[in-house]
Write a structure and sequence with these properties.
Apoptosis_promoter; Programmed cell death protein 7; 11 helices; PDCD7; single chain; elongated
Length: 384
């Protein structure tokens, strides 16, 4: 009965069959005998031959293909880093338990009974056995080689991931820097375009103002030019008529010719002088208007700078307090910060309380000190 498995013994006991009766049990003729059965292990494959197999083997030998052995694949040892970590943790846990039990045995060596001592020694034996199993698995050369290979692959993988991460970071930094440069260029371009638009607008407004102011001068200039062109046309017409009369053989009066020449010259000089005067007046007005426009532009820029400064002060220091009748005491205390006369009056009132050195002290911190080469009256305060 020792060769039978425990499950079979349990079945015999539960069914009420005696051990003698179980031994006298007759199996089927085709079933193998109890001596051939290897209980607790998988059954071995029984090779059954047929009448045709020798002929097939001979034919395979003749054609040169007699290798009928099957290659059983070797089981690869899958020693991963996680399994090695778990095994090491199990070893550490076992060592901690052994340390705890040994300390307990050392401290309670006189108190423990023989049964308890034996129980603990048995437990130590089981722990040592488990520790030896884990250590044997870890110290296996194939396991160590597989573990080293997996560690090498893991290092290689992490190095590749680190390189990829560095490349991504550098690429991201380059993109961010390029975006910043593009944003700066766009801001500069917008500022330049804004300045150009402002210049064009100011020139347009200045030209409109100049046209409005110089409308009368331009009208007088156009009148002078018209009169000058009319006088020159009359002079040409006079010359043409004189040539026509000379071709006909008719004589003209020299007095009329001289009178026309002197009159036309006088009128030309008058209108030319008037045109010069109008041009000078126009130039002066344009200069004045341009100066006014530049002053207005500077004033606008100053106002813009003040607004920017005020906005920054508001962001940094907050809104300024408006003094009203409710906080009159604060208004009175801070009056010297806004008015120079009030500051001088307060300083004068303080100076009236100055006393000689034996009775007083030195000047307060923050006051304006007198020069080194000063009078005796001030020098005694500098000593203290």
């Amino acid at each position: 009965m020792n060769n039978f498995p425990t499950n079979f013994n349990h079945f015999i006991t539960q069914s009420g069959i005696g051990q003698g009766e179980a031994l006298n049990y007759q199996f089927h003729p085709g079933f193998p005998s109890t001596s051939d059965v290897n209980y607790g292990f998988p059954p071995t494959e029984v090779k059954q031959t047929t009448c045709t197999e020798p002929w097939i083997d001979a034919w395979l030998i003749n054609i040169g293909k007699n290798n009928r052995t099957l290659q059983v694949p070797l089981n690869k040892i899958n020693a991963t880093i996680s399994s090695a970590r778990r095994s090491l943790r199990v070893c550490l846990d076992i060592l901690n338990k052994l340390t705890t039990i040994s300390q307990d045995l050392q401290t309670n060596v006189q108190k423990l009974s023989s049964a308890e001592w034996k129980k603990k020694t048995i437990k130590i034996g089981h722990l040592k056995e488990n520790f030896a199993k884990v250590i044997n698995n870890l110290s296996n050369p194939e396991s160590i080689a597989a573990l080293q290979k997996s560690i090498h692959q893991r290092k290689k993988k992490r190095m590749n991931e680190k390189k990829k991460k560095i490349l991504r970071q550098t690429h991201l930094k380059k993109e961010i820097e390029e975006r910043r440069n593009i944003d700066k260029q766009i801001d500069r371009w917008l500022e330049v375009k804004k300045e150009e638009d402002n210049k064009v607008k100011t020139e347009e407004t200045m030209n409109k103002d100049i046209d409005c102011v110089l409308a009368e001068v331009n009208r007088m200039k156009s009148d002078a030019k018209k009169n000058l062109s009319l006088i020159r046309a009359l002079i040409k017409l006079r010359h043409v008529r004189e040539t026509m009369y000379a071709q006909r053989g008719e004589k003209t009066s020299l007095e009329d010719k001289h009178a026309f020449a002197t009159t036309s010259e006088k009128m030309l000089k008058i209108w030319e002088n008037a045109l010069k005067q109008y041009n000078t007046e126009e130039h002066m007005l344009k200069t004045m208007l341009e100066k006014t426009a530049s002053e207005n532009l500077k004033h606008k820029e100053l106002l813009k700078e003040k607004e920017t400064l005020f906005s920054w002060e508001k962001v940094i220091f907050g809104e300024k307090m408006s003094f009203s009748s409710e906080n009159a005491s604060l208004l009175a205390l801070t009056a010297a910060e806004r008015d120079m006369e009030t500051f001088v009056a307060i300083r004068k009132s303080w100076d009236t309380f100055l006393v000689p050195p034996p009775l007083g002290s030195s000047l307060p911190i923050g006051w304006v000190l007198p020069p080194n080469e000063c009078s005796k009256d001030w020098g005694k305060f500098l000593i203290h």
